[in-house]
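[Meeting: bench + compute handoff]

Bench side (C.D.) handed over the final construct sequence. Compute side (W.E.) agreed to return the predicted structure before the next meeting so the bench team could plan truncations. Sequence as handed over:
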Amino acid sequence: MVTFTTMEDQTRASLGSDLLNRSVCLLVSLRKLGVHRTVRREKISRILKNEGNTLPFPEQTPRDPVQVDADPQMVRILKVLFKSPEYDAICRIDRKIGKYLQTRCLPSLLRKGAYLLPIPLIEEVDRALSNLAEQRKGLVRVLAGKFPQIVRESQRPLGGLFNPSDYPSAEQLEELFSMVVRYITFGVPDNLREASPLIFQREQNKAQSMWAEATQEVRQVLRLGLLEFVDRLINGLNPRSDGKQKTFRTKLLSQITDFLGVFAARNITNDAELAQLVDRAKELLAGIDAKALSNDQDLRRTLQKGFNEVKQSLDAMVGKQPTRRILLSDEDPGPCEIS
């Protein structure tokens, strides 16, 4: 059988190959103790009615703490096991990890918690994740040390819904928290070629098509990322409704500068059009700080004009193409992984 390959097929395969050559796949999985539990159905009772009027709530007892005006079989109620600033600190660092990865990688292209990490940024990201993992371990140890007290203090607000079996011991607690970082590859197994050349070729074609599609998604993610920053910057330069100038935030300028600074490494699809706009944005922001933008009206107008031109080009490039996450399987990666 003779197989004919069109120029479009060759181009798509080349795009997918370039994407894999310029990045690695990073998988970050964060797991922690969940603080919600479903209230058992026997703990829910229905309020009695008399001639269409609801009777007053009877006095609640630990045996019957939740009353609803509905069939308990149709109700699902969640309780919060505890509230703790130590636990909140772990949640904050998990969000910090996710936000950091989004500034260095191309997020959520394959599955939840999976990133395409540009090769030039591997060492920086690996160091940052190692430091954040150590910080997270320290916060978990603090939570474990205070956990017996946290459980005791939860008994009163939960009342009849308190159940000691919902809580792990302090020793078990640390095992419920984990941060796993893996570098993985996606491809067709070489031994499949020996088992069945036909199946190998079929799966290779499917993989090439998937990665070519992923290339377009990565390109769109970066374009939308720049457009978001440009919109925020223009909004910060626009006067308020009363005509007064807004105070330009140093944080926003720092975020934009960081995005532009790592763009070359993140541009794993070699998007030349976007690279030109990034260079233009760098030129506009060269030597500018937030204080100057707050005090120099001429500078604000010049910058606003320049970034409106950048936005016009970006709007045309982005168009109405939606971004979406490409799933490799229907497997649920777990509720505590980040994306």
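W.E. noted at the follow-up: Residues 21-39+76-184 form one domain. C.D. will use this when planning the next construct.
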